[in-house]
Amino acid sequence: MTSHLSHHPALEAAASQLVAVGRDFYERGWALATGGNFSMRLGTNAMVITASGREKGELTVDDMVVMDLDGRMLPSNSGSGSGSGPASSSSSSRARPSAETKLHARLYTRIPHAGAVLHVHSPSATVLSRLDAPQGVLEISGYEMLKALSDVRTHQHTERVPIFSNTQNMEDLAHEVDAWMDAFGSDALHGYLVAGHGLYAWGRTMREARRHVEAFEFLFDCTLRTRNATRHAP
Ligand SMILES: CSCCC(=O)C(=O)COP(=O)(O)O
Ligand SMILES: [Zn+2]
């Protein structure tokens, strides 16, 4: 079966990676039902992102929307983002972009090396984000797995994962993320949590972004298990 992307190999390749990550994260329980969204950068000022409201374990390459980083839908034949203006091809009529598109776009704007952004609704991220919401940050140190995060060289590293309040207003949430990066920088940042909602993580490539999500999931799980064990210790 041909898809509406089949004449655009680079875009189709990115869409295939988004389909694959959706299936994998669904199977791991990190993107159940319609929870989560995934994107990849296309050139300097564009990205391809999953359509809103789709079951993330059942995505197809047609469930993708091409957007510029200012929030305009692009024709899906624009590929590298060279096109601009309102969409004229099938991508606009087939699908609306993720409700969280602004958060992805802001990350690509703020972090020029980011090539993929992954958002998951995993149980451990969701629970920890609620538990530590009052502090506004989750601090993790002492685990060898920290070294799976890019540029981390030692288990003694302290990873500070900011936690933002959840809201349905994505402009407000994007503003909170911006303000945090203005205050603390983004160089040491690999991801952030939204309270009661989930995790955002990114990487230079899809492979690195997936590794970061996996590492965070492991670290969140260990953190929860450790807290549980400590609570039940005699
Ligand atoms: C039960 S999913 C609620 C919306 C959400 O948080 C999410 O990650 C998926 O939204 P999208 O518009 O990208 O499908
Ligand atoms: Zn979400």
Q: Can you characterise this structure?
A:
With 234 residues, the chain is of the alpha+beta class. An eight-stranded mixed beta sheet has the order 3-2-1-4-8-7-6-5, sandwiched between helices. β6, α5 and β7 form a beta-alpha-beta unit. α3 packs parallel to α5. The chain is globular. The N and C termini lie far apart (61 Å). About 7% of the residues have low confidence. The site of zinc ion has 6 residues, from loops. Keywords: Amino-acid biosynthesis, Lyase, Metal-binding, Methionine biosynthesis, Zinc. Its cofactor is Zn(2+).
Keywords:
234 residues, binds zinc ion, amino-acid biosynthesis, eight-stranded mixed sheet, alpha+beta, binds the ligand CSCCC(=O)C(=O)COP(=O)(O)O
pLDDT < 50 runs, ≥5 residues: 78-93
* Main sheet summary: 8 strands, mixed
Strand order in the sheet with the most strands: 3-2-1-4-8-7-6-5
Shape: globular
By helix and strand content, what is the structural category?
alpha+beta
The secondary-structure element order is HEEEHHEHEEHEEH
Number of distinct helices: 6
> How many strand segments?
8
| Heterogens | the ligand CSCCC(=O)C(=O)COP(=O)(O)O, zinc ion
Binned, the helix content reads 25-40%
Gap from first CA to last CA: 61 Å
Strand content: 15-25%
Radius of gyration from the alpha-carbon trace, in angstroms: 18 Å
Give the overall average pLDDT: 92
